[in-house]
Specification:
Neuraminidase, single chain, 4-stranded antiparallel β-sheet, alpha+beta, about 500 residues, 3 domains, 11 helices, elongated, disordered C terminus
Length: about 500
Amino acid sequence: MEERQPYKQFYQFCNKIFVVQEGLISEFINGNTILLHKISGQQVSFAQGGTLIIHDNKIIWVMDMINGKLRKLIDDKRYNKHNILSLVRFGESGLQLKDELLVELFGEDFPQLVRKTYENYITDQYRRYPNLLVETDKLINTLAEDQKQVRYDTYQYLLENLKMKITQKILPCQLLFVQKLLPDVNIYLAVEDGFIHIFNDQKILLKQVAVNFDLFIGQQSRFFGESTQTHIYKMIMCSGRLYVHNNEYVYVLHNSQLQLITRVYGHRQNDWIFSFNNTLALFEDGVLYTLENGVRRDLQRFNSGMMIQFCQNTFLLAESSICFINADYSTEIIFEHQFRSLTKLFSHGGIAVIQFADVNWSPVFAVLDMVNRQVKMLNKDFDYQNVLLQVEVGEIGLQLPVKVQKQMLGVEFPGQAARMYTEYLQEQIQYREYAEELIHLLGDDLKILLQARFQRIDSQFEHIYDKFGQIHQQFEEKTHKHADVINVLCKRIISLTQDSSDIQ
């Protein structure tokens, strides 16, 4: 009988590769393994951003993937295998532990060491190997052929890891609430983990601007299918200004910063901010109200339920009905039901997926057409988890794939939703104050973003998001022949903030 070979797991950060095998941690150097540590656990839960996390029943081991230092955390209420991943953020080198935990474990210089190591690695790889992806594909295929006993998926993982590190920073849409800013330019905006992210329809990050608060995203809200909420904050445009509701706080975008304007104490996940008649309104405990100079003014009280909104269309999901809320705050019932409960699973792009519970508490699904104000029941075999995992960045921000939209609501729906959203944005951008804030936020980089769109140079420069100054001249050279087109587009965008008589 063939002797069982110990199972090995390979993990990499920059030029360092580590092997985890039955309680042993080794470094893989020039084809040889150098033993570093013997530990009690072998279940790896995280290996990115310069740290490797392994745990058993009582201990969490965290290893520095630069110097090989090992630290031990006792599995307790503060740190345990269930909440340790809630300390992960999306940072400069991809997913990584939050800086405060890195400092606690490895010293105050370690976060900067991770960033510097990653930056040097990327710069060196891109300079030395402009065709690295092609060469890596060949290398992986060769290794897979030569070493039949090695699991191919391990090498596939290394390949994907390399691809991620040497290409553009890709934003995972399931972590972000996406807001499209301009109808004519594929620029999107999202707020996550202390930054305003500006990226294109391929989720490639073009620029990020620091904001003055940390966005809390609970562990269960990070992934579709594990929570009924795909995010726990919301951004809206109202009277031409951008507002963000995060946990208990409401912010407004001003001079590239999100400034706190109020706090909603005891906020629940189904309480949101809304735009009613171009007035910012808050919905809390069944009451829709505004804040004027810090003074609360109630607009309407509803018996129960939660609100959702697409453009200016607002709906109340009540105990026994789904209602459309008119401009005068009166309600119009569009669907009545006798189910035991109602839960919103998804609300983006003009579609809300709703789950009811029948008399036997079995799930029943429906879709709310937020454009035409209609509700359609779905078949019993509807796989909501599979559908939600298909969410993508589309013409109107986060949305279900067009094919799925057509299957749910007919072939005309995607076009109807896109037109409503475009009209809504055009109406909002007419407000001079909002448009000026947008131009201020992007500043001189707006032209570069347009150039990137036409030349698709986003596939050639992995550091576009933080090296605008260094590559500006290269952009200019590569897009010189498109200068006239770009100037026309810039004038077109600027014209949205001015009267036609002001345009030269």
